[in-house]
Amino acid sequence: MRLTSLSATGYRSLRSIRLDIGRLALFVGENGVGKSNLYRAMQLIKASAEGTLSYEIAREGGMQSALWTGTRRSGPVRMVFNNEFDNDETAIRSGYSVETGLAPSYQVEIGLRPPAAAGFAFEPQIKEETLSIDSGRRPVEMMGRKGPAVFARDDKGRRIEHPVRLLDSETALAILGSSGRYPEIGDLRATVLGWRFYHGFRTDRDSPVRQPSLAITAPLLDEDGGNLAAVFATLVHIREDTVDLDRCIADALGGATLDVPVPGETATFGLRLPEFPQRLFRPEELSDGQIRFLALAGALLSYRLPRLVALNEPETSLHPSMLPALADMIAQAAERTQLWIVTHSRVLADEITARTGVRALTVIKQDGATSIEGMKLSGGFEDD
Length: 384
What we know:
There is one protein chain. By secondary structure, this protein is α+β, with helices and mostly antiparallel strands. It has 11 helices and 19 strands. An 8-stranded antiparallel β-sheet has the order 2-1-4-5-6-7-8-9.
């Protein structure tokens, strides 16, 4: 199941924006134009699948901080997020042919507590949710939620009311998707839960990426990078294929080589530098830029990649000479999974475009609202 579009309305600087998403979405722009809000909107969709959407909004300051602060139309104050997907497997199981273009769509609306209702004043309240499937003939609503009441279609296609009325802070996607009773909802939830967001790795001395990992096969990198040593050990000693990894590390780090001993109870790694070939530099000795590049290598070149990999400003702390190697890793990862890249660096964006042919979308701000340079309201571009 692949993400094909993202829409966000009423969230921070995202007054109303719709983006068509291909295999690689590449955004570049200056500070303060709202690039991170686009990235965060994606994270909030995953939070909805996890059941932590209200918590995540409260953690960033509550509704008073998260709502669009510009001029609003009359009516309820809402934030709305919508994602559309394509999904051939669901088409086959549901009896539709793949050619019909079956497309799941999930939308969630968040608002404020009514004045006379129970709850905290600025607590995010889930107002409505829908999950529909467009079979090419007409959309079929698989799940609908208004307030605490939720309806969904069971495995026989019958529209039934879910027996438990939801709290305002709970999402139907998480509750119904984990129940085992609604396969289409469960499939979509599993897809979104498979996304990984790498928005900066800690590089202090106690950073998870500098620590040994439990010696457990690690097909992909945790979001905090805490199993980086196990990811490298899996590539070296289980997959036994580190050609791409070795080349990117050598290109970025002046000919350095990665050293990964056979794990005992824990997995470890180090770097050998050409000027000190007999000396192994352990993770705690590496510079911020070196350890961050290695973490990005673990995220992009792991044994198995997540369904979607999102990187927020991956160039942070990297020397400019490392950017071509980072672009190489991104281009290789784009052949295996879907990528969402947000960067300040026009140099990095140009390097990625040169390798993938994907145009970088320039994020700008107009009248306080985030938009994409040259993009029409439909999500297409004036020169398409």
